[in-house]
Amino acid sequence: MRVNRRSPIAVFFTIALVTGSGAATAQPNATAQPNGDESAAATATLARPAPADPCFLDEVTSNPTRPNWDTSATTTQCGVVEIDAGWLDQPMGGGVHQTLLLTSMRYGLTPKLDLRWGLTNHMVQSGGGTEPLEGSGDQWLMARYRFLDQGSRSPALAFLYGIKIATANPDKGFGSGFVDHQFTFIASRDLGKNHFDFNAVGVVVGEPGGHDGAVQCGLALTRTVSRKISWMLESYGGPQPGTPDRFGAGFTGASFTVRPTLVLDAAYARTFTAGAPRGQIMFGFTYAMRSVFPPPSKDSALARLLGR
Predict the structure, then answer these.
(1) How many CB atoms lie within 10 A of CB 29?
(2) What is the pLDDT of residues 53-91, one digit of tens each?
(3) Can you give the residue range of the structural domain that contains 294?
(4) Nearest to 218 by CA among 189, 242, 247
(5) Global pTM?
(6) Phi and psi at residue 29, to the nearest 5°
(7) Quick one: DSSP state of residue 170?
(8) Which end of the chain, N or C, is less surrounded by CB atoms within 10 Å?
(9) pLDDT tens readout for residues 245-288
């Protein structure tokens, strides 16, 4: 049974930049003494704390990419590791159900760049009088780079590249057995309590005869309902590589912030494509913690190039 090869991949910002600080030097041979106001200003300048390094912030916060399909230009906090996991149920038709356990890990290498490893830990198809199928899915390696921060009139812009490691068993229909590539342009914008993410996703898939490609687009709205609850509404679709069918889906979900480092989520998606699961129910969590591996030194040219 065919499984849609596009992994759901998604919302919120860490855009602090490192700035330099000046130091005052005493002038013992000065002939003039500052007046009282000047002395007070100098004291205030000396007492002002240095800007915080965005790779060593006191508070660790989670930046979930799930349960959304469209991803945000916001990257994982620098020096922080995020782990997320979720359960997905897909009715396949004819009484057959497919369940998946999905996991990913992201590392904030700089304030503008994060790296991701995602995999489908376990897949099961059962029901409908068919022989149960069980196994693991494909894995993905991804990098997301934000090259423009949000301005007063401009959105935040980012680019994401992903490559699929074909570890799923194609004989069971759990994967194609070929390497795929994904190129994603991301635009994100905050408008009051509303956050918008637009994705244009180019997919190049491997096939027995070579490669095929297509471009799909999605738009997601995330609205802050309260200090802890956010609501998502999303639409995604476009041509599918390797088939004349077009993919189209609608999505709604919510997230609950237990604490800054832990976020729970749940969502429902409805697809309108032949050969794809019609409904999807999912829930999971995202947890953030400080990494034991320090980010690259901000003094290196490569780190500065990558946004350190």
Answers:
(1) 5
(2) 788 888 999 999 999 989 999 999 999 999 999 999 988
(3) 80-305
(4) 247
(5) 0.78
(6) -100, 15
(7) G
(8) N
(9) 778 889 999 999 999 999 999 999 988 776 566 788 999 999 99
